[in-house]
Specification:
Blueprint (H helix, E strand, L loop, with lengths): L8 H4 L1 H11 L4 H5 L5 E4 L14 E15 L6 E8 L4 E8 L4 H6 L5 E11 L2 E5 L2 E4 L6 H8 L2 E4 L8 H14 L9 H6 L5 H9 L4 H32 L12 H8 L6 H14 L6 E6 L5 H14 L3 E5 L3 H15 L17 E4 L5 H13 L4 E4 L13 E7 L6 H8 L8 E6 L5 H7 L4 E5 L9 E7 L5 H15 L3 E5 L33 H10 L7 E4 L5 H12 L5 E4 L12 E6 L7 H8 L9 E7 L6 H11 L3 H11 L2 H5 L19 H17 L7 H21 L1
Parallel strand pairs: 4-6, 9-14, 9-15, 10-12, 10-13, 11-12, 13-14, 16-21, 17-19, 17-20, 18-19, 20-21
Antiparallel strand pairs: 1-8, 2-3, 2-5, 3-4, 5-6, 5-7
Bound molecules: adenosine-5'-diphosphate and magnesium ion.
């Protein structure tokens, strides 16, 4: 008998174990049995040979039609050619051998069916497998083989030249025969509530199914394992986090926050009020808040964050606001300064009585300014410290850090979150993470499952709508001229525009803001041209369609002070058209900018386009977003662009994004790769299952935090942690 944690060597022998480890990175019985078939072939149902593409490693079921042997010229060996067929297409199997290969000729006689596995190549116009591995069906042979082919469904595993599908199947059969699962990872109560079969049963059912019902039943159960272990781990983390202590920062009666609310020029939306109240409660607790605030671009997250910051300052604490880029940190600094007015001008002429001070700390500060900022943070002189990664450095210290606000969470790793968290003196600071990237519910549950969540679903009233149109220059070249004309019209009316390109251009290395997510579509016109570059367009536009307008260029390769100057000039209306990369993507706010033209829009992801267009229509004038593309009408890229043009619902678009990208990309490296802990689970398709697993996991962890009564589950969670850790080590 063998258990899941046993090394494979004990079960399949040294040689097979070595090979499984080397080729597939499988080491334990559990690893092997979680290597699920990629498909099932029906016994006797031949593979469609016309569907094979060259270069592919395939496993096909076919019937031998003819065999011939000829001598190799100038050599003592022979070439045996067997032609196999599925009744329509044909495929040649070629074997080179010493002597006449009589034994092979005897084995491969016409009419025999088998599984053949190898890489498809082409020789003199015929497709062939050279030296394929094969296993004949109904050939008697070892008992194992006969048993394998007696089944209705033949599992086909992702195989390679070093390890064929049926060799994997053989090892799995051996492991299943000796498998003992004394502690089912899913507690009996969960199984019975959701009608799930036992673990050993499910493993047998997925590897050696009787029929498709058997496969489906087993898959559902195994999906539960994936969802449940992950949700248990996240529930444990939430519980652990809530056991840390934090200094409570309850609201006070007549503080800065009250004064600020009195000066606020608009009414908070209902969503802002609800999220604000929840956060105010969180801050008053003795345990650190860990909250994700999700809301579309322009939904008003900054105001919520600022109100939380003021509550903490009223309670004698400081707050740090961490932004992903210099431009954003500077913009936050400006917009928070202006929202606060006299309330943020402590010690200055015109400062209000209880006023606080803001400090900006970024990598580009000069030595003197930096020293001053560090002092402001350490002395407590500044209540609000806004910065980039520079805030994470060791020498940055705070007098009493009560709250950390992180803007655009997806650009920071867990380690960075922790680095800031460790800067609080007693206990931990409260933490508010903001993201403008709408994420589907289950992704949020999976990626941010250790955070509580607030979501703003509405935009403040009176927000101008954004109209989005696709500009298909392949079919309608003259639309491009019309696009530039639109910009001229808006500028003539005193408004401003963005032109966004997927590439910076010039000689520099590729930067993170360059659109690399999507490779250009393959087409019949040969290799795709490089994406349109900021530097090229900024040269061409003033000489042509935008002659006479005031243009400026913004991208990540500019020095920080230059970027700042350009953004300021644009914000002040001194620049009509900003030619830029996606550095303007998050958070940039210039209400007078009403048009955004996105060049080569097909090179951007759906969510990214949605984020980008959120930069326009922020003032009283309606926004216009033009998606310029050369992609032909029937290309998948056009469907994506039409989807963006068709809805302003970021959540709907994020689902499309998720379908298009590999889920691993969405989950980040921790979940990606061969050893991904999500094998069967699909975040969109299995939403309901994930939600149920989360409820069950939360209840179970509340009752038994250390999983003392669930040893099988504890082991499954440990495996998950190991995977996470090894991925982390690989990265480091
Ligand atoms: P986000 O950070 O969520 O993209 P912001 O907080 O930058 O959005 O808000 C966008 C703009 O809307 C800002 O100019 C802000 O002052 C304004 N705003 C925020 N809340 C409201 C509201 N309730 N009513 C009107 N305007 C608002
Ligand atoms: Mg913002």
């Amino acid at each position: 008998m063998a258990v899941l944690a046993d090394p494979l060597r004990l079960v399949v022998g040294d040689r097979a174990a070595k090979r499984l480890a080397a080729v597939l990175d499988l080491h334990t019985v559990g690893d092997l049995l979680s290597y699920y078939p990629r498909r099932y072939d029906k016994r006797g149902e031949l593979t469609d040979l016309t569907s094979l593409s060259e270069g592919e490693h395939v496993t096909v079921q076919a019937e031998i039609a003819a065999v011939s042997v000829r001598k190799m010229r100038n050599r003592s060996g022979s070439i045996l050619e067997a032609v196999v067929t599925d009744g329509r297409g044909r495929l040649t199997l070629t074997f080179f051998g010493h002597g006449r290969q009589a034994w092979r000729e005897a084995e491969l006689h016409p009419g025999v069916r088998g599984l053949f596995s190898g890489q498809v190549s082409s020789f003199q116009g015929k497709r062939q497998l050279t030296h394929p591995e094969y296993e004949l069906i109904g050939a008697g042979g070892a008992g194992g083989r006969a048993a394998e082919f007696a089944a209705e469904l033949i599992p086909v595993y992702r195989a390679s030249a070093q390890l064929s599908s049926w060799k994997i199947a053989n090892s799995i059969r051996v492991a299943l025969d000796v498998l003992d699962v004394p502690d089912d990872p899913l507690p009996a109560s969960v199984r019975s509530r959701h009608g799930l079969c036992g673990y050993a049963d499910a493993l047998r059912g997925i590897h050696r199914p009787v029929d498709l019902t058997d496969v489906n039943r087993s898959k559902t159960r195994l999906k539960w394992d994936e969802a449940f272990a992950l949700q248990v781990l996240l529930a444990q983390r939430r519980l652990a986090a809530s056991s840390y202590s934090a200094i409570p920062r309850p609201p006070v009666a007549d503080g800065l926050l009250t004064e600020f609310d009195a000066t606020l020029p608009f009414e908070l939306t209902v969503g802002q009020q609800l999220a604000g109240a929840t956060i105010a409660d969180d801050l008053a607790r003795e345990h650190p808040m860990h909250r994700l605030l999700q809301g579309e671009v322009g939904s008003g997250k900054t105001v919520i964050a600022l109100r939380a910051i003021l509550q903490v300052i009223d309670a004698a604490g400081q707050a740090a606001l961490l932004a992903p880029t210099e431009v954003l940190a500077q913009q936050h600094f400006r917009s928070i300064s202006s929202l606060l007015g006299p309330l943020g001008m402590a010690g200055q002429l015109g400062g209000a009585e209880h006023a606080t001070r803001l400090t900006l700390l970024t990598g580009s500060l000069g030595a003197a300014a930096r020293r001053k900022a560090l002092l402001e943070a350490a002395s407590g002189g500044a209540g609000i410290i806004i910065g980039t990664h520079a805030l994470l450095e060791d020498r940055v210290q705070f007098a009493d850090l009560g709250l950390v606000v992180i803007d655009e969470q997806h650009r920071f790793g867990v380690e960075q979150r922790d680095a800031l968290r460790d800067k609080a003196g007693d206990g931990r600071p409260h933490m508010l993470v903001m993201t403008a990237t709408p994420i589907p519910r289950t992704v949020a549950m999976t990626v941010f499952g250790d955070l509580d969540m607030s979501t703003l679903t509405e935009l403040p009233a009176g927000r101008s709508p954004i109209a989005t149109h696709v500009v298909p220059v392949a079919e309608r070249p003259h639309y491009l001229a019309r696009t530039w004309e639109r910009i001229r019209e808006e500028v003539a009316a005193g408004r401003q525009a963005y032109v966004v390109c997927p590439r910076i251009g010039g000689d520099g290395p590729a930067d993170s803001e360059e659109a690399s997510a999507l490779a250009p579509e393959e087409d019949a016109l040969g290799p795709a041209r490089p994406p349109i570059a900021v530097l090229d367009l900024a040269r061409e536009l003033p000489a042509g369609p935008l002659a006479g307008l005031r243009l400026a260029v913004l991208h990540g390769r500019l020095p920080a002070d230059e970027k700042e100057k350009v953004m300021l000039a644009f914000a002040d209306g001194l620049v009509d058209v900003l030619v830029t990369t996606t550095v303007v993507e998050v958070g940039v706010d210039v209400p007078n900018a009403v048009v955004m033209v996105i060049m080569d829009a097909d090179r951007f992801g759906v969510s990214q386009l949605h984020q980008l267009r959120g930069r326009v229509g922020r003032g009283s004038n309606p926004g216009l977003c033009l998606l310029v593309t050369e992609a032909p009408e029937d290309a998948p890229a056009r469907e994506r662009l039409d989807a963006v043009a068709g809805t302003l619902d970021g959540f709907a678009l994020s689902r499309i994004d998720l379908v298009q990208r590999r889920e691993g990309d969405v989950l980040g490296t921790a979940q990606a790769g061969r050893k991904s802990s999500l094998r069967l689970l699909r975040l969109l398709a299995d939403e309901e299952l994930i939600a149920q697993a989360r409820v069950e996991a939360t209840a179970l962890v509340a009752a038994d935090p250390a999983l003392a009564d669930a040893p099988g589950l504890a082991a499954a969670v440990r495996v998950l942690i190991d995977v996470e850790r090894s991925t982390f080590l690989e990265k480091a």
